Inverse folding.
């Protein structure tokens, strides 16, 4: 890899654009996890997973067990190593998050120049079997099927609450990308018949491109309402 940039970046707090916990791609071809602690604000041990490729998809990630402090590294659904960290760290993983770039207020112009097929973030430690299931979920296209989305990172709005409308947008993927590049956007509504993308600062379920069903305190299931849309991970 010849480029580096943020893949998944929490900010320190709602109104503080310093680093929260983040995952980057770095020049060496590694996936880089840097956990940040809330109070006192500081950095926990960082981790590198040298698996990124320019020629093939790689499904890689990390788990942190709050009770034991054990960090496990995963590649294509298989455990690739484990390291001991401090137990019960209060990590910054519940603040606004951006993918591919940091907020402009951070004065950091670096961005990820590459392709991301699928991102999943869970508020609990998954088992080896569950990790394998997440890999299979990423390998399949979404076509009117259910998505497992962590609470707080779903997209779906009441169209009356939109603040910006973009025309000549031809897929839900393209609409979601517009939202990711706009720091005010929290949710989208894609209108396939008019090739229109509506951006909103709110997150509700009315007249949405995604239908949301709460299944637990930690997770929300989202189902595409437009069967003609194919959103690939």
């Amino acid at each position: 890899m010849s480029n580096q940039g943020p893949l998944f970046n929490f900010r320190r707090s709602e109104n503080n654009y310093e680093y929260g916990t983040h995952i980057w791609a770095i020049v060496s071809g590694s996936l880089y996890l840097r956990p940040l602690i809330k109070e006192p604000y500081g950095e926990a041990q960082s981790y590198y997973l040298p698996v990124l490729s320019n020629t093939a998809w790689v499904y890689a990630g990390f788990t942190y067990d709050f009770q034991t402090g054990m960090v496990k590294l995963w590649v294509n659904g298989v455990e690739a190593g484990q390291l001991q960290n401090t137990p019960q760290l209060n990590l910054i993983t519940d603040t606004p998050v951006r993918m591919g770039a940091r907020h402009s207020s951070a004065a950091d112009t670096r961005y990820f120049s590459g392709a991301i097929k699928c991102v999943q973030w869970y508020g609990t430690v998954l088992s080896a079997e569950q990790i394998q299931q997440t890999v299979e979920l990423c390998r399949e296209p979404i076509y009117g099927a259910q998505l497992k989305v962590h609470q707080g990172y779903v997209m779906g709005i009441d169209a009356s609450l939109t603040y910006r409308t973009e025309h000549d947008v031809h897929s839900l993927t393209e609409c979601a990308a517009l939202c990711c590049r706009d720091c005010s956007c929290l949710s989208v509504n894609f209108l396939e018949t008019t090739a229109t993308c509506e951006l909103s600062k709110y997150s509700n379920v009315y007249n949405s491109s995604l239908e949301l069903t709460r299944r637990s305190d930690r997770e929300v299931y989202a189902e595409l309402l437009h069967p003609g849309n194919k959103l690939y991970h």
